[in-house]
Amino acid sequence: MCLVIPAYNEEKRISHTLGMISESLLRRYGRMKVIVAVQGSDRTMDIVKGLSRKNSRIVPLDCRGTSGKGINLIRGFGAALAARPEIVGFADADASVHPGQLEKMIEALRSDDVQGVIASRYVSGSKIVGHMPMSRWVASRGYNLMVRLLFGLGFSDTQCGAKFFRASALRSIMKKVNLTEMSFDVNLLYEMKMQNLPVEEVPITYYVKNEGSKVRVGRQIPKMFVVTLSYRITRSPFGMLFPVWFRSAVYRWVKSW
Asked: Which residues face 205 on adjacent strands?
């Protein structure tokens, strides 16, 4: 089993997060590895390397020089799949979904006849602890409505930062997972749907972490809407009307915002 943690300038939190994971998940699942995909220019890589020397099941992956959470996860998944585990997942570095909740998701995937499980803040049985700014909540629900309308994905929450998949299912779709920004999750889930690979939402307790949050609603949400709409067009019959160079130009333009 492999857990990928995308870490962009997380020097203030990564030790605490990996400490919690070591005390819980790594103790329970003896063959589990944690791949930390590091971006940014702070001391995160040095910290992860230090922890790796103490625990070889913590694996640093240097993604510095790239940009976007999605590319962190694409590279992290590639490294994880190369190890041939049965289950591959990811969780955000801020521990907004605590290890105990991740364990709940893993057990749901192992016991249910599904190919993936995703954490949800909005299905029955879930709980949000802490204050989520209204702008972030409105953007989240508005984006979810857009995803439902464009892709027919019936999930209440595609963007919560914790998901696990059977490695065989993940391997079958990775060639079509290429969105490198925050719309990565929709790309991943839609390709699962197109392959008829069932995914289940799991209610979790979510701890809002506003301090140190990388979410910038004013910049990221408009980008997500444009990229998500562009992705939907490319996966429709109209996609043939837009050559690869045009789509690439659109993505580069959006990324430069």
From this structure: 127
Q: What is the dihedral of CA 122, 127, 131, 134, to 10 degrees?
A: 10
Structure tokens, 37: 């995909």
Q: Which residue has the higher pLDDT, 99 or 227?
A: 99
Measure the CA–CA gap between 218 and 65, rounded to whole angstroms.
Answer: 24
Domain layout of the chain by residue ranges: 2-255
In CATH, the architecture of 2-255 is Alpha-Beta Complex (3.90)
With 0.85 as the threshold, say if the pTM is over it: yes
Angle between helices 69-82 and 184-194 (to 10 degrees): 50
C-alpha closest to that of 94 among 186, 32, 183, 20 = 20
Calpha distance 165→236 (Å, rounded): 25
Backbone angles phi, psi at 7, to 5 degrees: -130, 105
Closest of 246, 128, 232 to residue 179, by C-alpha = 232
Task: Tell me whether residue 102 is exposed, middle or buried, using C-beta atoms within 10 angstroms of its C-beta: 0 to 12, 13 to 18, 19 or more.
Answer: buried
- Residue 137: name the closest of 119, 118, 122, 152 by CA: 122
Q: Return the structure tokens found at 14.
A: 């990564």
pLDDT in tens, 94-133: 999 999 999 999 999 998 789 999 999 999 999 999 998 8
- Of 209, 214, 215, give the one whose Cα is nearest residue 17: 209
Q: What is the CA radius of gyration of the chain?
A: 17
